[in-house]
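Narrative of activities, Objective 1.

The group set out to show that a structural description can be obtained from nothing but a protein's sequence at a throughput compatible with the screening campaign. Below is one input-output pair from the validation batch, recorded exactly as produced.
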Amino acid sequence: MKQTFTSFEDFYPFYLKQHSNKICRLLHVIGTTIVFALLITAIYHGNYKLYLYVPIAGYGFAWVGHFFFEKNKPATFQYPLWSLKSDFKMYFEILSGKISLDASKDE
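Output recorded for this entry:
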């Protein structure tokens, strides 16, 4: 049975549970970092062809994490915008130390 969510606040804890494997979280961090690097480089150099690589970097790393380490279906298939927002939120929470790559250490 598919879960349905009516708010981002309800969705985000589910998103974190779908990212409990530390390698999956690490792959998300790597992919999101590459996304930011591509965006900054594209803007700085005016090379807008680099935008084509943004979804490949972002989703490529994330989907490897889900299919091979989490062994679950990415939430982006059902909730694409909330998943994108959640990815950025998780990314900055990991970088700031609010949550860990190791989900068992999250509060």
